[in-house]
Amino acid sequence: MIETKEQVSMSQLNASPFKADLHVHTIGSGHGFSTVEENIAAALAKGMELIALTDHGPAVPQGAHNWYFWNLSHVPGLVSRALADGEVKELTVLRGCEANIIPDSTLYQSQWGLDVADIVTQRLDYVTIGFHPTTGFDDRDIDANTAAVVKAMQSPYVDQLNHPGNVREFPIDSDAVIAAAIENNVILELNNSSLNPLGARAESKMLEIDFAEKAYAAGATLSINSDAHFSAGIGKVQPALAYALERGIPADAFINTSAARVLTHLEAKRPRPLLEANRIEREQNSCS
Ligand SMILES: [Zn+2]
Ligand SMILES: [Zn+2]
Protein backbone atom coordinates (compact mmCIF):
# COMPACT_ATOMS: atom_id res chain seq x y z
CA MET A 1 0.00 0.00 0.00
CA ILE A 2 1.28 3.45 -0.86
CA GLU A 3 0.86 5.80 2.07
CA THR A 4 -0.26 9.32 1.34
CA LYS A 5 1.64 12.20 2.94
CA GLU A 6 -1.23 12.68 5.38
CA GLN A 7 -1.18 9.03 6.44
CA VAL A 8 2.57 9.14 6.99
CA SER A 9 2.14 12.23 9.15
CA MET A 10 -0.57 10.58 11.22
CA SER A 11 1.49 7.44 11.78
CA GLN A 12 4.45 9.62 12.81
CA LEU A 13 2.20 11.37 15.31
CA ASN A 14 0.80 8.17 16.77
CA ALA A 15 4.16 6.43 17.03
CA SER A 16 5.57 9.28 19.18
CA PRO A 17 9.05 8.74 17.79
CA PHE A 18 11.00 10.70 20.40
CA LYS A 19 12.84 8.48 22.86
CA ALA A 20 15.04 11.29 24.15
CA ASP A 21 14.04 14.53 25.86
CA LEU A 22 16.86 17.06 25.91
CA HIS A 23 15.27 19.65 28.18
CA VAL A 24 13.88 18.59 31.56
CA HIS A 25 13.76 20.44 34.91
CA THR A 26 13.75 19.24 38.52
CA ILE A 27 13.15 20.88 41.90
CA GLY A 28 16.75 22.10 41.48
CA SER A 29 15.32 24.93 39.36
CA GLY A 30 13.27 26.21 42.31
CA HIS A 31 10.15 26.43 40.17
CA GLY A 32 10.29 22.80 38.99
CA PHE A 33 8.20 20.26 40.89
CA SER A 34 9.76 16.80 40.51
CA THR A 35 12.92 15.24 41.87
CA VAL A 36 15.59 13.58 39.73
CA GLU A 37 14.30 10.22 40.96
CA GLU A 38 10.69 11.05 39.99
CA ASN A 39 11.85 12.18 36.55
CA ILE A 40 13.81 8.96 36.05
CA ALA A 41 10.83 6.81 37.06
CA ALA A 42 8.45 8.75 34.80
CA ALA A 43 10.84 8.56 31.83
CA LEU A 44 11.32 4.80 32.23
CA ALA A 45 7.57 4.24 32.53
CA LYS A 46 7.05 6.16 29.29
CA GLY A 47 9.61 4.07 27.42
CA MET A 48 12.12 6.89 27.08
CA GLU A 49 15.78 6.02 26.43
CA LEU A 50 17.39 9.30 27.51
CA ILE A 51 16.65 12.49 29.39
CA ALA A 52 18.83 15.55 29.92
CA LEU A 53 18.52 17.25 33.31
CA THR A 54 18.73 20.94 32.48
CA ASP A 55 18.02 23.03 35.53
CA HIS A 56 18.23 26.80 35.40
CA GLY A 57 21.51 28.60 36.05
CA PRO A 58 21.90 30.95 39.03
CA ALA A 59 21.07 34.26 37.30
CA VAL A 60 17.31 33.62 37.30
CA PRO A 61 15.42 33.77 40.60
CA GLN A 62 15.69 30.37 42.35
CA GLY A 63 18.23 29.12 39.78
CA ALA A 64 20.70 26.47 40.94
CA HIS A 65 24.17 27.36 42.22
CA ASN A 66 27.26 26.41 40.24
CA TRP A 67 28.06 23.84 42.97
CA TYR A 68 24.79 22.09 42.11
CA PHE A 69 25.89 21.60 38.50
CA TRP A 70 29.40 20.58 39.51
CA ASN A 71 27.97 18.00 41.89
CA LEU A 72 25.71 16.40 39.28
CA SER A 73 28.49 13.80 38.99
CA HIS A 74 26.68 12.07 41.88
CA VAL A 75 23.72 11.32 39.60
CA PRO A 76 24.22 8.07 37.66
CA GLY A 77 24.55 8.51 33.91
CA LEU A 78 22.86 5.21 33.19
CA VAL A 79 20.00 3.71 35.18
CA SER A 80 18.87 0.14 34.69
CA ARG A 81 15.63 -1.01 36.33
CA ALA A 82 13.05 -3.75 36.22
CA LEU A 83 9.59 -2.26 35.62
CA ALA A 84 6.37 -3.61 37.17
CA ASP A 85 5.97 -6.14 34.34
CA GLY A 86 9.49 -7.47 35.01
CA GLU A 87 11.02 -6.02 31.87
CA VAL A 88 14.43 -4.42 32.45
CA LYS A 89 14.76 -0.96 30.91
CA GLU A 90 17.73 1.37 30.65
CA LEU A 91 17.72 5.14 30.78
CA THR A 92 20.65 7.41 29.98
CA VAL A 93 20.61 10.49 32.21
CA LEU A 94 22.58 13.41 30.83
CA ARG A 95 23.75 15.71 33.60
CA GLY A 96 23.30 19.16 32.18
CA CYS A 97 22.16 22.72 32.69
CA GLU A 98 20.12 25.52 31.16
CA ALA A 99 22.63 28.33 31.51
CA ASN A 100 21.45 31.90 31.18
CA ILE A 101 22.96 34.23 28.63
CA ILE A 102 23.99 37.26 30.71
CA PRO A 103 25.70 40.58 29.91
CA ASP A 104 28.52 40.28 32.47
CA SER A 105 29.65 36.78 33.35
CA THR A 106 32.82 37.73 35.27
CA LEU A 107 31.25 36.65 38.57
CA TYR A 108 30.50 33.21 37.15
CA GLN A 109 33.90 32.73 35.49
CA SER A 110 32.54 32.17 32.02
CA GLN A 111 34.29 33.76 29.08
CA TRP A 112 31.22 33.10 26.92
CA GLY A 113 28.68 35.27 28.74
CA LEU A 114 27.01 32.47 30.71
CA ASP A 115 26.10 32.06 34.38
CA VAL A 116 27.59 28.57 34.61
CA ALA A 117 31.39 28.56 34.86
CA ASP A 118 33.47 27.19 32.01
CA ILE A 119 35.08 24.59 34.30
CA VAL A 120 31.56 23.33 35.02
CA THR A 121 30.13 23.36 31.48
CA GLN A 122 33.32 21.63 30.32
CA ARG A 123 32.44 18.54 32.37
CA LEU A 124 28.67 18.45 32.03
CA ASP A 125 27.12 15.94 29.62
CA TYR A 126 24.73 18.42 28.05
CA VAL A 127 24.89 22.21 28.12
CA THR A 128 21.86 24.15 27.00
CA ILE A 129 21.57 27.94 26.99
CA GLY A 130 18.81 30.49 26.64
CA PHE A 131 17.54 33.98 27.30
CA HIS A 132 15.30 34.39 30.33
CA PRO A 133 13.62 37.40 31.91
CA THR A 134 15.46 39.50 34.53
CA THR A 135 18.97 38.43 33.50
CA GLY A 136 19.97 41.61 31.67
CA PHE A 137 18.43 41.25 28.19
CA ASP A 138 14.92 42.59 28.73
CA ASP A 139 15.50 45.70 26.57
CA ARG A 140 14.54 43.96 23.31
CA ASP A 141 17.76 45.16 21.67
CA ILE A 142 18.16 42.86 18.67
CA ASP A 143 21.84 43.67 18.07
CA ALA A 144 22.85 43.15 21.69
CA ASN A 145 20.84 39.91 21.89
CA THR A 146 22.27 38.51 18.65
CA ALA A 147 25.86 39.34 19.63
CA ALA A 148 25.39 37.70 23.05
CA VAL A 149 23.82 34.50 21.77
CA VAL A 150 26.37 34.10 18.96
CA LYS A 151 29.21 34.55 21.47
CA ALA A 152 27.65 31.98 23.83
CA MET A 153 27.31 29.43 21.02
CA GLN A 154 31.03 29.79 20.31
CA SER A 155 31.76 28.10 23.64
CA PRO A 156 33.03 24.62 22.76
CA TYR A 157 30.91 23.26 25.62
CA VAL A 158 27.50 24.56 24.49
CA ASP A 159 25.27 21.91 22.93
CA GLN A 160 21.83 23.43 22.47
CA LEU A 161 20.11 26.81 22.20
CA ASN A 162 16.71 26.67 23.92
CA HIS A 163 13.51 28.27 22.64
CA PRO A 164 15.27 30.47 20.04
CA GLY A 165 11.93 31.39 18.48
CA ASN A 166 10.96 33.46 21.53
CA VAL A 167 11.73 36.54 19.45
CA ARG A 168 8.99 38.84 20.70
CA GLU A 169 10.48 38.73 24.16
CA PHE A 170 14.12 38.40 23.05
CA PRO A 171 14.45 39.52 19.41
CA ILE A 172 17.42 38.10 17.50
CA ASP A 173 18.68 38.12 13.92
CA SER A 174 17.42 34.62 13.08
CA ASP A 175 19.66 34.17 10.04
CA ALA A 176 22.79 35.11 11.99
CA VAL A 177 21.86 32.82 14.89
CA ILE A 178 21.09 29.86 12.62
CA ALA A 179 24.37 30.36 10.74
CA ALA A 180 26.30 30.49 14.05
CA ALA A 181 24.54 27.35 15.26
CA ILE A 182 25.56 25.46 12.12
CA GLU A 183 29.12 26.78 12.31
CA ASN A 184 29.50 25.80 15.98
CA ASN A 185 27.55 22.55 15.79
CA VAL A 186 24.90 23.74 18.27
CA ILE A 187 21.46 22.10 18.28
CA LEU A 188 18.50 24.46 17.84
CA GLU A 189 15.47 23.53 19.89
CA LEU A 190 11.79 23.55 19.05
CA ASN A 191 10.33 23.98 22.54
CA ASN A 192 6.93 22.43 23.13
CA SER A 193 6.30 24.50 26.26
CA SER A 194 6.54 27.68 24.19
CA LEU A 195 3.27 26.66 22.55
CA ASN A 196 1.42 26.42 25.85
CA PRO A 197 -1.07 29.31 25.91
CA LEU A 198 -0.65 29.48 29.69
CA GLY A 199 3.16 29.35 29.49
CA ALA A 200 5.77 32.06 29.95
CA ARG A 201 6.51 32.35 26.23
CA ALA A 202 2.96 32.36 24.84
CA GLU A 203 3.73 35.78 23.36
CA SER A 204 6.02 34.17 20.78
CA LYS A 205 4.03 30.96 20.31
CA MET A 206 3.96 30.33 16.55
CA LEU A 207 7.26 32.18 16.09
CA GLU A 208 8.92 29.08 17.59
CA ILE A 209 7.58 27.09 14.64
CA ASP A 210 8.63 29.79 12.16
CA PHE A 211 12.14 29.69 13.58
CA ALA A 212 12.31 25.88 13.39
CA GLU A 213 11.11 25.95 9.79
CA LYS A 214 13.84 28.41 8.86
CA ALA A 215 16.50 26.45 10.76
CA TYR A 216 15.43 23.20 9.07
CA ALA A 217 15.60 24.81 5.62
CA ALA A 218 19.12 26.05 6.41
CA GLY A 219 20.26 22.55 7.41
CA ALA A 220 20.74 23.14 11.15
CA THR A 221 20.56 20.28 13.67
CA LEU A 222 17.23 20.43 15.50
CA SER A 223 15.70 18.92 18.62
CA ILE A 224 12.13 18.94 19.89
CA ASN A 225 11.74 18.93 23.66
CA SER A 226 9.21 19.17 26.44
CA ASP A 227 10.93 21.66 28.80
CA ALA A 228 8.98 19.74 31.45
CA HIS A 229 8.87 21.27 34.93
CA PHE A 230 6.91 18.27 36.25
CA SER A 231 7.66 14.60 35.64
CA ALA A 232 4.38 13.87 33.83
CA GLY A 233 5.43 16.28 31.05
CA ILE A 234 8.59 14.38 30.10
CA GLY A 235 8.60 13.36 26.44
CA LYS A 236 5.59 15.54 25.63
CA VAL A 237 6.18 17.22 22.28
CA GLN A 238 2.64 17.90 21.14
CA PRO A 239 1.45 20.26 19.75
CA ALA A 240 4.93 21.28 18.53
CA LEU A 241 5.36 18.09 16.48
CA ALA A 242 1.98 18.47 14.79
CA TYR A 243 2.86 22.02 13.71
CA ALA A 244 6.31 20.92 12.54
CA LEU A 245 4.87 18.12 10.39
CA GLU A 246 2.34 20.57 8.97
CA ARG A 247 5.22 22.82 7.90
CA GLY A 248 7.00 19.92 6.19
CA ILE A 249 9.59 19.27 8.90
CA PRO A 250 9.70 15.45 9.26
CA ALA A 251 9.99 13.83 12.68
CA ASP A 252 13.48 12.50 11.94
CA ALA A 253 14.74 16.03 11.28
CA PHE A 254 14.89 16.24 15.09
CA ILE A 255 17.93 14.50 16.54
CA ASN A 256 16.24 13.17 19.67
CA THR A 257 14.44 10.22 18.11
CA SER A 258 16.80 7.86 19.98
CA ALA A 259 19.48 7.86 22.66
CA ALA A 260 21.97 6.41 20.18
CA ARG A 261 21.50 9.27 17.74
CA VAL A 262 21.95 11.88 20.47
CA LEU A 263 25.01 10.19 21.97
CA THR A 264 26.70 9.80 18.57
CA HIS A 265 26.24 13.53 17.97
CA LEU A 266 27.55 14.45 21.42
CA GLU A 267 30.60 12.19 21.21
CA ALA A 268 31.57 13.70 17.87
CA LYS A 269 31.51 17.25 19.25
CA ARG A 270 33.69 17.16 22.37
CA PRO A 271 34.93 14.94 25.20
CA ARG A 272 32.29 14.27 27.90
CA PRO A 273 34.26 13.44 31.08
CA LEU A 274 31.30 12.26 33.18
CA LEU A 275 29.91 10.06 30.41
CA GLU A 276 33.38 8.69 29.78
CA ALA A 277 33.83 7.87 33.49
CA ASN A 278 30.51 5.98 33.40
CA ARG A 279 31.60 4.06 30.34
CA ILE A 280 34.87 2.97 31.95
CA GLU A 281 33.05 1.96 35.15
CA ARG A 282 30.57 -0.13 33.15
CA GLU A 283 33.38 -1.87 31.30
CA GLN A 284 35.18 -2.66 34.56
CA ASN A 285 31.97 -3.98 36.12
CA SER A 286 31.24 -6.22 33.16
CA CYS A 287 34.80 -7.65 33.31
CA SER A 288 34.75 -8.37 37.05
ZN1 LIG B 1 14.19 28.29 29.25
ZN1 LIG C 1 13.76 25.17 30.57
In short:
With 288 residues, the chain is of the alpha/beta class. It is built from ten helices and eight strands.
Give me some keywords for this one.
288 residues, TIM Barrel, binds zinc ion, 8-stranded mixed sheet, alpha/beta, globular, disordered N terminus, single chain
Which helices and strands appear, and what pairs or packs with what?
Blueprint: H1 5-15, E1 20-24, H2 36-45, E2 50-56, H3 66-70, E3 78-82, E4 88-100, H4 118-121, E5 126-130, H5 142-153, E6 160-161, H6 174-183, E7 187-191, H7 205-218, E8 222-225, H8 240-246, H9 259-269, H10 273-287
Helix pairs in contact: 5-6, 6-7
One zinc ion (ZN) binds next to loops.
How would you sum up this structure, described in words?
The protein has 288 residues and is of the alpha/beta class. Mean pLDDT is 92; it is low at 1-14. The protein has one domain: TIM Barrel (Alpha-Beta Barrel), CATH 3.20.20. It has helices spanning 5-15, 36-45, 66-70, 118-121, 142-153, 174-183, 205-218, 240-246, 259-269, 273-287, and strands at 20-24, 50-56, 78-82, 88-100, 126-130, 160-161, 187-191, 222-225. The radius of gyration is 18 Å and the shape is globular. Strands 1, 2, 3, 4, 5, 6, 7 and 8 form an eight-stranded mixed β-sheet that branches. The protein has ten helices and eight strands. It binds zinc ion (2 copies). One zinc ion is lined by residues 98, 130, 132, 162-163.
